[in-house]
Amino acid sequence: MERSSYHVAIGSQEVDLPLVALSDSLTLALLITVDMGVGFMRQAGEELAELLRPYDVDIVATVATMGIPVAIEVSRALELDQYVILHKTPKIHLADAVSEPVRSITTNADQRLLFDRARIADVAGKRVAIVDDVVSTGASTGAALRLLRSVGANVVAIGTLVTEAALWKQSLGEDAAIVHALGALPIFHPTAAGLEENWAG
After folding, report:
1. CA-CA 20 to 30 A from 84: which of 8, 78, 120, 155?
2. pLDDT at residue 193 in the model
């Protein structure tokens, strides 16, 4: 029988994530932060914050939407009152936003990260940690790095609940060294014998 979930440790917590086919050749274990519950996200946020604490972070940044619960809980655990969001959906307050192109593995479409110019002062010259739910291809994280650096942020760390396979290491280059994760996932390829785990990507 074909398995429908993947068991993974995310820090001290263990969960079964649903396996979802993106195409005939690629299946992912899907982590949906907004479905994980308040208790899970609080614990994960506290544990990720401990990995980031040595970097003396001034403010946390994330990419909407699944990164928002991570940013809230990490900020709370680090006793920071503010966090900033890089949006993928145009909104009325983002008409004059700073933008950066991005292509995500789960949306398979060209998008733009948008950052409210009114928030530039919150990151310019500050020690910023980018946090997210998953670092997979590194595309969204790389776009966030470029955008934040373009407005003067000093990105000192990247925190994620899980990394996925290893394509992100090549994509992020030297910045891969500042990625800290609570867990790791493979990607999966269908074979005649069932789903095969691929850790290289």
Report:
1. 8
2. 86
